[in-house]
What does this fold into?
Amino acid sequence: MALSAAEEDLREQFGLAYAQSHLPVMQRIERAVCGCDYGGVSWATREEIDQVSAMLALRPGQHLMDLGAGSGWPGIYLAKQSGCDITLLDLPLEGLAVATARAREDGLTGSFSASVADGRTLPFADESFDAITHSDVLCCLPGKQDVLAECQRTLRSDGRMIFSVISIAPGLNDRDRARAVEIGPPFVVSEKPYDEMLRQTGWAVLDVIDQTAQFLDSAGTFRDANQDNKVELADLMSAEELQDRLERDTALVEVIAGGLLCRELYRLKPA
It folds into this structure.
């Protein structure tokens, strides 16, 4: 499936982020915010992923897909903790190259594979996976309902999917909604509520956990860490890019604190 100009631009942005993820300054920031150094670009903290691990109850012989896996967070971590087989899927090759090296470094005991593919057309047979996870992926791409349908198709009937997503808070006035769209992830707008899309794509919702307070805390830590490391960040980007990054950090904290954006963790099974 051909990418739109906006999608291709985002793929390039993520590719650059993954290529720089091994740099000491980026690892310091990631450890401060998420408690890990896999080069991830989601807001999934180690504490959250430990919770996901417990809910999925993965074990050796099971097969997990991490959709939008980037450089391997959290899929490789979940596979290392559980001994399960892991398939990573994303579009930026740069991230999957980092993830492949990390998988070797971590000495996974289960099988490992990585695929460059679009979540709207997964290159896997029906019922290929025991579990699926994705972290803040749906808010960074269009075709959300197609992705949910493909995940449902490729998950076994007794499997589970857990994902986090950032969304615009309901009931906002036009001004606040526009601000949420401006500061939120690039494809944060959803044509339908997530519960409606999930129902229409054959999912039963087991839990919805509000992670907005953690999101706000992480966004504040990210803002402070970028400010503390701005001298080194200035070597990686132009002065204009750095200033924009720092200003958006502050704006994101304000938007979350103002109740304009929320973040939730869904646990699902096929209906």
